[in-house]
Structure formats: C-alpha cells, structure tokens
Amino acid sequence: MDRRDFITGAALGTVVSVGFGEHVLARSRSAVDLEEATIASLQQAMASGATTSKAIVQGYLARIKALDPKLNSIVEINPDALAIASEVDRERKAGRVRGALHGIPLLIKDNIDTADKMKTTAGSLALLEAPTPQRDAFVVVQLRAAGAVILGKTNLSEWANYRSDSSSSGWSARGGQTRNPYVLDRSPCGSSSGSAAATSANLTAVSIGTETNGSIICPSSNAGLVGLKPTLGLVSRSGIIPIAASQDTAGPMTRTVGDAAVVLGALVGFDAEDDITAQASRGLRDYTPHLKIDGLQGKRIGVARNYFGNVPRVDAVMEEQLKVLLAQGAELIDVRLEMAGAGEASSKVLSFEFKDGLNRYLSQRGGAVKTLEELIAFNTANADRQMPYFKQEILIAAQNRASLVSREYQLALMQAKTLSQEAIDGVMDKHRLDAIVGPSNGAAWPIDLVNGDGGSRNSYVASSSPAAIAGYPNITVPSGFLTALPLGISFWGRAFSEPTLIEIAYGYEQATRARRPPRLLPTFA
Predict the structure, then answer these.
(1) Is residue 20 exposed (0-12), middle (13-18) or buried (19+ Cβ within 10 Å)?
(2) How many CB atoms lie within 10 A of CB 517?
(3) Structural domain 1-525, CATH architecture
(4) Alpha-helix residue ranges (DSSP H) falling in 9-123
(5) What pLDDT does residue 162 have?
(6) Of 64, 123, 220, 459, which sits with the fewest C-beta atoms within 10 Å of its C-beta?
(7) Which helix (H) or strand (E) holds 382?
(8) At CA 59, angle to CA 56 and CA 62, rounded to 5?
(9) 24-25 vs 105-109, strand pairing mode
C-alpha cells in the first residue's frame, strides 16, 4: 500500500489547525490531551469515563495524519485499530480490565510479525507481496493479551540497518527516509527510527523497537526518549525478522521511565518456540514497584570513562548529569571497560547468524524470496528501487559465510560473549557496582543519502556495545540538549538487573525532567 493512502478510510478526529513552527495542534475528539500523555494518565481518563480507547485511537490517528507527513515514521496503519479499541472499551464497560495496557494504543516496528491485515517487511520491497505471517510474533501475542491496541507499524532502517556500511539510518525501500522530530534534516538514528520519531512526536502512547546493537538506545537518545534494551532471554525473539540470535531483542521506547517499566512487564514471558526465554522466569511481570523517587540513594555507579573524550560538548553535559547523580545520593567510581576484540568478534558473529537466521525465517514465511541468496538477487534485479542510495555489501558478506557449526563462528561467539560479559561483570565485582553509566550518544548528525551515516563518526560514542554484545540490559533517559538536539544518558549492568536500572533511571528522570517535546521545526538553524 502506498504510504500516501495508508490512512484512507480511518475515522479521524477533526483537526482545526496545525502550526508546525509553534507546535500547535487542536485537540481531536479524544477529549484528553495526547501531548506527552502517559499510560497512567490515559488509564485514569478511561477509568473515569472522560474518554475511551476508541477516542484515544482517533486522536492519535488525527495527529498522525497532520504530523507524520513531515516525519515519515509510520509505514502502515492497522485497519482494525478502531474495531480493536471498541472491543476493549466493551470489556472495560463490562468490568474487565486486563491491566495497565488495556486500551493503550502502541506502534510496533516493521520487522515484527503480525498475523492480521498489515504487512511485515523489514522495510524491503522483497517482502511487500509475501504472504502475511501465519502467526503473531510472541511479543505481539503478549501485547494483545494485555489489551493493547496495535495502531500500526513504523519505518526502520531496512533489514534493521544490516545491509550496507554506507546506509542512512531510518531509510528503507518501503518507507523512505524517517526524520528526526526535533530537527527534520537530522538523523533519527537506526534501526528503530520510526518507533522513536513517532513516540517522541506524540503520534502514539508508546512503541516497540528491536535492538542488536544500539537500535533501541541510539534512536531513543536522538529522539529524547526512554529506551530500554532488556537482558537477552527476557523477551521472545520468535516472529521477529532476525539479525543475530545471540544479541537480538525487542524492547520498549517511551517518553517516561514509568511507561517503559509497564511495557517491559507486558513483554516478558516464556515462549516454547524460543528456548532462551526459559530465563524469563528471572524477570518480573510488574516492574512498577521499582519506580522509586529515591532510586539513586546509596547506589554505587561506575562512570565508564572510555566513553568520554570523543565529543567535548557531550562530555560537558554528562559532567553536569554526574553531579545530579551525586546530589541524589549515588556514589560514583571512575572505571574503564576493557573490551579489546569484543567488537570485532561480535561483527563476525552477526554475519554468520544473519545468514542462518534469515534463511530460516524466509523459508517459513513463504513468498518469492526464500533465502538470503534470493534476496540479494532480488535487490540486484530491482536496484533502481531497492538500492538508489547504497548497496548490499553486508548481505553479500553474510551469504559467503559458512554454517554455524564452523570453528570460525564458534570461536567468534565465545570471544564476543566472554570478553563483553567479563568486562562488565569484572568491573562491577571489583568496585561493588549497581550499574555503569555513560553518554548514550552524541547529538544527531545531518541526514546524508549520498554518504550515509558518515557524519555519525563525529558524534557516535558506541556506549551501547558492551551491554548489547554481552546480552545485558541497558536503559537510556533524556539528559539535556545540544542546541535543539536531545541527548541521553545510559545506565547498564549485569544480566537481569532491570529492576535496579529502572530504580536508577527513574530517580534520575524525576530529578532532572530533561525531556522536552519536539517542535517539529522545518530546518536546523
């Protein structure tokens, strides 16, 4: 479906006026202000009878119609969203409320399977006409069971930014280029770029992204959001188009730590189709008790100094945030994470696992493209549409890899996990730390479809890598701005330490309240 027509037929609220420079948008018939609305505020409004899930959905659809043409963050609206909202409204009226997500609209990334009227493409035209997935991804099953209303699907960096070294974050052949909601000519970062842009611009209550290395943390930081990458094993990977089984996970992208805690609880669960979720029993179904105003009190936090020094202006903002941590009762210890060789080993692991995982996914999905080799051929045959800006050298390199039984793969996997996990666990044991802190990223770089993300080299600090490679949790929280561009601060730690990280992140968020909504300015001055 052409994205220009994807809202056709939706029952939209009436928009009286839109002024992008002043960020003025008249309220729709939702009868509740959707600007910076939280899960709690929406639940309160529905519980009091002030509004309904259907009206909230209509309100978000109106915002999408008015604002998303500038952002290009959403590739498809769920044609059943209003019907689903009406059904959960009937349940509420009958006295059945499934939980904190009952009636809450959310968006999911276009690499997450849904067995409905929407497509799942990873941004590639190769899957645009493929059969609809036979089953929902397990995380979608969980969200539907919680009463959430899946509003639509978000654009992403094609194949989760695993196609070319010169790609532009947020670009896909299906959806085009997603833009940063704070400064429209700046990158949203990838690959969960659409999820970040839409949530930051208040086009949805919350969204779901996925991460292999940085694809929740970086776009959340660039869009002034809270992004939470869970421990590998808490959240099922089944039904999510893969990059690497040893690092892939879905996670929440929200405007507040409180909302991230709610969504994470809904995502956690054992999936018989994904053996690694046997570890989900170590997680919680409710993380909200860890939303503690004094969450920083008495915490020992290691300052990862090897992620300072790349961008002086980011360092200056970070130093001010470290003062906040101290003022809120945390104890800070300077540390360095020694991970030499882990990044190179991880890159090799991703190349092997992508071929294996994608071949299995495509063979089960059906359609004209059933293997990575056939995908490469499709891209070559349709280069004018699929590769107008960058090529597919990462796909070709992966195709040339041997199977996962090869010694080269096994050795790389062992090195990546051992080096990253020992780096984090070792420094935390040595200094008796509760978490590690560092800058999430530098400020967003200019979108450049000619040279790709080359500008990121001047601002990207790669602090997401230790937790991503190790399979450990990481949460980013808005920390301030460089001119009009938001920055984030990241807290990461041991496996299954989400409760502690949420306490720290919430204590920090409440002390700073650094997030400001975007004004959707036309250009960066």
Answers:
(1) middle
(2) 15
(3) Alpha-Beta Complex (3.90)
(4) 39-48, 53-71, 81-93
(5) 98
(6) 459
(7) none
(8) 155
(9) unpaired
Element holding 417 (H helix, E strand) = helix 407-431
User: What's the confidence (pLDDT) of residue 455?
Assistant: 78
Question: 355 vs 162, 333, 347, 350, 402, CA distance in Å?
Answer: 11, 41, 13, 9, 9
The structure tokens 């689903």 sit at 84
Mean pLDDT in the chain? 93
* pLDDT at 524 (0 to 100): 38
Opening angle at CA 52, ends 49 and 55, nearest 5: 135
Confidence (pLDDT) at 440: 97
pLDDT in tens, 375-425: 999 999 999 999 999 999 999 999 999 999 999 999 999 999 999 999 999
Length of the chain in terms of residues written: 525
Structure tokens belonging to residue 17: 């006026």
Would you kindly state where each structural domain of the chain is located, as residue ranges? 1-525
Mean pLDDT, residues 221-250: 98
Burial of 264 (0-12, 13-18, 19+ CB in 10 A): buried
Q: What is the pLDDT of residues 129-146, one digit of tens each?
A: 999 999 999 999 999 999
Q: CA-to-CA distance for 138 and 267, rounded, in angstroms? A: 9
Which residues carry out catalysis? Answer: 109, 191, 215
222 vs 201: CA distance, rounded Å:
12
pTM value is 0.94
